[in-house]
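Protocol step 4 of 6: structure prediction from sequence.
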Amino acid sequence: MIRAPGRALGPWAIGAAFLVDGACRPAPDDTGEIFCDPRTLAEGEVRARRLPCDAEGISGGEGKRGDFLIENAWARFVVRHAGSSAMHLGLAGGTLLDAAPPHGEDALGELVPLPGNGWIGEGTVTVAREQDSAVLRVTGTPAPVPSVGGWLGPGTEIALTWRLGPDDRALEMEGADAAWLYPAAGATLTGPILHDDDRALAMDGMATDTGGAVLWSGAHRFAAGEASAVMAALWPGGPEAWGTAPDATGVEILEGDRVVGWLPVDESGTFEGTLPEGADGIRAVAEGVASGPVLPPGPALVLDLGDPGFLAVHASDGAGNDLGAVLEARDPAGCARRLPVPPEGADLPLGPGTWDLVLHAGPLRERVVRAGFEVAVGAALEGDLPLAGDAGDVVLADLAVETWRSRDDRSEPAASLALAAASGVRFAVTTAPDEVAGSERVQPWERIRVETGSTALTDSVGRIGAWPVVANAEKAAHGAAPWRGLDAVDALAVASGGRSRERLLSVDPRWIEAASDPRTWDPRPDMVVLEGIGDLPLYMGLLDAWMDLAAVGPWTWVAVDDPDRFSGVEVEQGLVSGRTVASSGPFLALDVAGQGPGSHLEAGGSVPVRLTVLAPSWMPLTGAALLVDGEVVARWDLAGRSGGERLVASRVVEARRWVLAAAWGTEDPGPPARGLPWAITSPVWTADPVEP
């Protein structure tokens, strides 16, 4: 646990205000009266203190009373109290939590320093004064940071200093030359600048984007604010440029062919700013338009854009009805885009050039593929995407829509859910590994039910999913399950939130193998996330042990009473009761004596079975099977079969316990299929499961 320094630190103990102007009232240390002082500091002032009230925090940030504030007249930064990192399980605080200029909005999730490729697992934060600078010093014992190898290992003490002088625009980070930086949702990385509207973050050094977080190396200084101010703070003394860039959304700064900075263009079409030293080029950019010509930096520049490249896209359901869809696009350089298409259609900003396109609306509909499609002025793509067949009263669920605060994805929840809805998903769980997903509840243009969850991405017992989980800024990883050091069963118990919570729980095959004896499972998971046809033997083993767990997958088909009128509760009841088909794309309709998956027949014996296999023409399948009490009782060769209904077959089987069906393929057809085609139904029980 990080502890506050005691009285022995004297006048510069936690809570002290570092003042150059003695006329300003100093804040007392934490041994005396604590009062709020949320004023903007005057030029020449600098201070660091423990936040005595929330009012001194940064607007839009997560800093609370008990965290640490270091600020001057130009910049404000909140450092997390030492108890826990905001976004990492098992790590301590002392990390940078919020950042903005005075009166600005926070755009930072968290900045985690990496001295020796690790951070601290336990330590101390103290406040100090060194000459004219305010200082926050973090010390402690190291611990590994996920996704970072080569950490210092136990027994080595880490010492890191956050330093701010009275006239500094950037915060100094001493004791580490690398950091993980988590920006707010929706941020774009251009060169070393993370920007979102008029907010920007940057460090000096080299940035490596992982999709969610950004790994900075060779970094010692951090700045936040408007992009031109951030660049001036990190690279003072560089060349200046100003001018106009009509219709541009930004200006890229170049050193040779490398992008080293970014400046915004305001509503009047003007830009200005200080550029990094060594910058020798500048060009206008806008989404969907080719970059303009590169000019040398200087005054009174006029930057033009290149040719536009908007693609008009519209999809229908094959019967003339408008349909939401997803456009997947890849250019020859490997640049990939994935954009939702609303039912009324849209002009999508791909940019001019040659693209390979796939237009789809979910795994059970036909798709349109266009290789080498030339996007230019007037380009359009119309697509009929009919269903492969009638799946009946089911809805498509995606139980892992990964979004911010994920290390791999910083998409805004609304954007992630719009893509899910465009893929035909009607029930979604937003999630982030070892975090609580962004909890913004939205209803995009397609009707979709949404829950917010979290995935425990353990290194020893597999994945554990849980929902609903509400983010709690006071807890590590915003309330994600602290699974480290726990065995499989205990980790599941922690993820459940306790007996007073009503969360649904999913586990993967690794958890099943690690948890071993089902008689020890308390609580019991509600569903098993199957990852492929190779997981079928493990799943059948659970059924043979009378474990009534639903099968779910990358896609999950859930039976409902009416697909046009359903509730999220009904879908969740279907998941818990096993009215599901786990799939990477295909759909299986299994009927046993008039009942579907998840049903419990009154008696076993001879039962009539009907199996229908549905898949669009672009999805190759090679086989299907009917399985009863762990044995294959019927198998069909589907290779070479085309059309939507690949199989319609009936059998009478002898069943004592359960019946299920499976189908598979050996060739990855690409999006929207999620890998090799396969599908596995939950069982129809012909005898009531016995408690293990």
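Step 5 (inspection) to follow. The first helix runs from residue 227 to 234.
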